[in-house]
Amino acid sequence: MRKPDQATKKFSWGLPAIIILALTLTACGGSSTSSIPSLYTSDWTGDIYVVNANGSTTLLINTNVSSVDMGNASGLLYHSGTGRLYAGTGGPNGAPNCNGCVYIINTDTGVATEQSSASLITAAFYNIQDMAERNDGTIFLTANDALWSMDPSTHEVTNLGSAPCCGMGMTFDAAGTTLYETGGNELFTLNQTTGASTLVGAFNYIGFSVVPSFKESMVAMATDVSTGLTHGILNEGSSGAGPRYFVTIDLTNADVTYVADAANDQDGLTFVP
Predict the structure, then answer these.
(1) Per-residue model confidence as pLDDT tens for the chain (273 residues)
(2) Residue 131: which of 153, 147, 110, 115 has the closest Cα?
(3) Does residue 1 belong to any structural domain of this protein?
(4) CATH of the domain at 32
(5) Where would I find the H helices in the chain?
(6) Which domain holds residue 249?
(7) Domains held by the chain: number
(8) What is the pTM of this model?
């Protein structure tokens, strides 16, 4: 990728400068009080990181302390209605103990607990790519080119229909009413009853370029409801191995703006409101 020059790169990407949440964490060894900014990312080992304002990351939750090998947390969602941190598993790091399952992560201990109701359709899921919350609290998941809904109270999952091929990132707009999903190098809106898609447009890279003929994919998206700004992780290349970049996305026209380099195994993204 041809990146913008340093003068262009040094801008804020909408992350709040004020830390908004404090938790006592024991997951990374010892008990300590840690201030948590609002944007989290997950990787192929299931660990959770804070994304700092300059795009660097800091380890927040080490899920290796869990007795469950969660594997690749390819989907990540903070559910504002319950305060839970969800992860959906799958992806290129090999099959974990439950590939395509939904977990709740205890942010104090790092323990990931499988939600059995959601996991009843593990064989159908296989690879949960992303998760998003509607303004009524309903959770939506994209997995294996299909759209699913999940009740946050019972974790019962319903198949709603086919979604765009190779769907990866998914998010609602700031109002929590319009659902967006990426398919390859394109952005779509999804019908929340049937999964039917409407093309917004092909991604348009603003201020930087990607390698011609490479298969780009937006592997994760998350919208900051306080600013209305949507963030994403862009994978550049025909495989899932990167390179990857933190970007912002204009949901109205599919414009993508480079923010910072990301680790090649960062795969999930969510905001804490």
Answers:
(1) 555 543 333 334 454 322 222 222 223 333 333 333 489 998 887 888 889 878 888 988 887 665 566 778 888 999 999 999 999 887 544 444 566 788 898 888 888 888 866 654 555 556 788 999 999 999 999 888 889 999 999 888 888 998 877 778 999 999 999 999 998 789 999 999 999 999 999 999 998 877 755 567 898 999 999 899 999 999 887 666 668 899 999 999 999 999 998 888 888 999 976
(2) 147
(3) no
(4) 2.120.10.30
(5) 6-9, 122-125
(6) 6-271
(7) 1
(8) 0.82
